[in-house]
Amino acid sequence: MSEMPYVFHFSKINLNPIMRSIQTGIPLRAFDVMGMGGFLLSSWQEELAETYIDGEELVLYDSMSDAVEKAAFYLAHEDIRMRIACLGQQKTLQEHNLRDVLEKMFQKMFQIVFLTHSGY
Question: Looking at the DSSP assignment, which residues form a beta bridge with residue 59?
Answer without folding.
Answer: 41
